[in-house]
Amino acid sequence: MIFLSLFLNFLKIGLFTFGGAYGAIPIIRETVLANAWLTEEQFSYFLAVSESTPGPIMVNMATYVGFTMGSADHGVLGGVLGSALCTLGTVLPAFVIMILITTVLRRFINNSHVRAVLAAIVPCVTGIIVATGLYMLAELIFPSLPASLGSFSLPALIVAAVLIVFMEVYRRLRKKPVSPILLIVVAAVLGMIFFR
């Protein structure tokens, strides 16, 4: 049954995601592609919408995937149920863990072993986020990988280059990193220009 599968898969995502929403993207991607819920292209679109709408990316993505899969065979009500189950599965582990931390485990946070584990997780999550970003960029610029390195998407390459230059120029002129909101707006405008 699709609803049970949606709930259990997103419960697993919520349970094994460290480092926030960006750390969840590789796990969500692997899950939706393995279950054939989305194609790679659809996943990229869902990710863009999830980043552009208010709320945590991981929860937005779960809601969109749940609605899409639930409504595919069961109409709008199935979509609402699917999105509710995916969202619940995603947030339930964090909710339970936060309750445990605030009530029982607060005294262990200064333990050197706990601190060592948390310190070891940070570079791992950073690596996962960077690798996912680079993989998605490569998929966008070279859509036929690994078949051919010769064919690439010139508009995607131009957009990526313009965004990188924009971020660097902004940082040098303003002496601070570019706001993610401004970056999303610039990327949306470039997308409308090059991918209409």
Secondary structure layout:
Blueprint: H1 2-15, H2 21-34, H3 40-52, H4 57-103, H5 112-141, H6 154-174, H7 180-194
Helix pairs in contact: 1-2, 1-4, 2-4, 2-5, 3-4, 6-7
Structure described in brief:
The chain has helices at 2-15, 21-34, 40-52, 57-103, 112-141, 154-174, 180-194. 79% of the residues lie in helices and 0% in strands.
Give an overview of the whole structure.
It contains 7 helices and no strands. 79% of the residues lie in helices and 0% in strands. The mean pLDDT is 85. It folds into 2 domains: 2-152, no CATH class; 153-196, no CATH class. It has helices spanning 2-15, 21-34, 40-52, 57-103, 112-141, 154-174, 180-194.
Characteristic key phrases:
globular, 196 residues, mainly alpha, single chain
Query: What is the ordering of alpha helices and beta strands?
Result: HHHHHHH
- How many structural domains are formed by the residues? 2
List how many beta strands DSSP finds.
0
Q: State the major sheet.
A: none
The general outline is globular
Helix content estimate: over 70%
Instruction: Estimate what percentage of residues fall within beta strands.
Output: under 5%
Query: Roughly what is the average pLDDT, rounded to an integer?
Result: 85
